[in-house]
């Protein structure tokens, strides 16, 4: 669970990009995924080197660095719900009139004032950042705090723990070392968080566990593995299916096995086209396109894991259940292998055709109309 530490300790420019370059790979600062140099990676019919593929990874898995940060708990971002909403809409490129219409807040002038207030907050943040940097340089024995995990369900005073305090707590409750058993789980809530943070290191990212497999790992740590399991879910370290048949590490739920992806690409003939995801309960649809329609399985996986970037669609998927949704290819992009064709442009036009025909906006769908400037 060191991903946030990696992110916050990075220089500002690396934080904006969301990755850092290391000797043998590019490392995602948001999830820790490593993209090895010297390998060619496929994505929707196109091959990329590692320096370009790390950016695709961030776009596909995290949507963007902005979306990753804006989804954090308000105690980490320092943003009110109101500011969070405005920043999202501004980031989407909406003008003051469009923001006012969508939020119902005051007038266009009101939105303009909010923009100014956020700019003022930016200036204040820069001043505060410089002061804290100078303070760190001046302090010899300053306290470094452990950063809460991104998937924390609620960040409060229980998370105020220094690195030294954390080390002391681990030493106290794991008297034989972290590979040994936990002495007791009867402790303060703040201490429980530190202990759970250590225990979760034993659970692999990018893997789904059965309840029996998870219990086997936890029982090696503490006899009352049921309590450990419940707390790991309660504090946002783990997630599970509603029937308890599958468990996974929340920060690893969106990751893909890159070697398997490469092999699948090599073995599969790609088909480009337009698809729809339909809610058969309310008849709303989402229209999308892909150079590789086989990747639709990945979109269903994202919905199953609760990580699909279209929030309205994700919320309805959770509300109605996966049985209420169908995935359908609307039209394949037809072309000859030896034909000189801009496939991306042709696919975009094909998608526009279906968007115009079905109008999947508002009450009819989950798409968002693109602003025309």
Automatic annotation (TrEMBL):
Which InterPro entries does the annotation name? Answer: DUF2087 (IPR018656), GIY-YIG_endonuc (IPR000305), GIY-YIG_endonuc_sf (IPR035901)
Q: List the SMART domains.
A: GIYc
Q: Which residues form the GIY-YIG domain?
A: 271-372
Gene3D superfamilies, alphabetized: GIY-YIG endonuclease (3.40.1440.10)
Write down the CDD domains for this protein, in alphabetical order.
GIY-YIG_LuxR_like (cd10451)
* Source taxon at top rank: Bacteria
Pfam families, per the entry: DUF2087 (PF09860), GIY-YIG (PF01541)
- Segments crossing the lipid bilayer: none
Name by which UniProt lists this protein: DUF2087 domain-containing protein
Show the taxonomic lineage: Bacteria, Bacillati, Bacillota, Bacilli, Bacillales
